[in-house]
């Protein structure tokens, strides 16, 4: 039972991030298809998913299309009740749906002035009063959820990671990417998203593509991304310690150095996404750990 998920550019498509997290974070099998969000081929790429016009969109294992992240979320929750996409407690689940719906339909100033970008920290950005009002409302919602249903041992809004966290992951990225002023509690929640290995894998793949001009922030000064500093890795020549790619199981052809050890991958994409953030990839880190233990 596998879905087909159609997404746009990882570095900039906040809606696509929401759609991808629904599958990746809850271990729902899917296959990814890239649609031309900026290349002009979006309509053609989504032709088989009519009436879909935007990313993300998905095709169910039964073969019918579902567009819009809210519809996708509810469809997946119906089809996979065991995955825990929504909180189990009825009151918590109602509040989580409220938070998701308000995020989906609101916060226009934040969306317009601070488009999601995962390249780095935009220097010197000054938020408007309207953006500050959006942030105040967001913090209110996060605080209520955490106080009523959060747990001390978890950073997420309702204790376990849920669709509420999926929908607010791009908001966290906006706060981080533009250095928006929020409370210490809110900043802790933002930092949890940036440190989440699933979020980091999304960003690492997005960094494989370069842009000229850069959408949304062209001409703005950008500093280092405020998330965890990746392990220092670089592409290099072989041979490698391993003969088989940790992801595909195919023979290695491309190589990366980490801590003076050389590791192999089956293609440049596998290598380069790992170079971008080695610790985000469990299969790779498990291989390294097994060799060095």
Automatic annotation (TrEMBL):
Domain of life, per lineage: Bacteria
Signal peptide annotation: none
GO biological process: glutathione metabolic process; L-phenylalanine catabolic process
Keyword Transferase applies: yes
GO function terms (MF aspect): glutathione transferase activity; maleylacetoacetate isomerase activity
InterPro entries noted in UniProt: Glutathione-S-Trfase_C_sf (IPR036282), Glutathione_S-Trfase_N (IPR004045), Thioredoxin-like_sf (IPR036249)
Keywords: Transferase
Residue span(s) of domain GST N-terminal: 12-78
Protein name per its UniProtKB record: Glutathione S-transferase
